[in-house]
Amino acid sequence: MLKIFVGNLPPEAREAELRELFSKYGTVRAIKVAVDVFTGNCRGFAFVEMEGHEARAAIAALNSTSFKGRPLKVNEERPRGRRGPGRRH
Q1: Could you read off the pLDDT of 21-80 as tens digits, one per residue?
Q2: Which of the 8 DSSP states describes residue 26?
């Protein structure tokens, strides 16, 4: 199972639209759209979980493609680590 980061989403992006887009490449196991708690709008990114080979196919096909007039940034999720030297957590 791979978790895919999907960035540069418009504020009106919804889970159902992303599920339809990614399901062309395989079974979508889960989707989590980051939503602003005050407006309910998408915060510009989401995570999609798919099987490995299907996820890689979706990444290859969808990265830099247009979604509602914006070029998507689609890649494997990178774990949040230290954000840089000198920063405290």
Answers
A1: 999 999 999 999 999 999 999 999 999 999 999 999 999 999 999 999 999 999 999 877
A2: S
Closest among 5, 17, 8, 2 to 74, alpha carbons compared: 5
Cβ neighbours of residue 12 under 8 Å, at least 6 residues apart? 41, 42, 68
d(CA 86, CA 8): 28
Could you give the CA distance from residue 87 to residue 57 in angstroms, rounded to a whole number? 36
Map out the domains of the chain with their CATH numbers. Answer: 2-76 (3.30.70.330)
Q: What is the pLDDT of residue 82?
A: 56
Instruction: For residue 84, give the DSSP letter.
Output: S
- Residue 34 tokens read as 């980051």
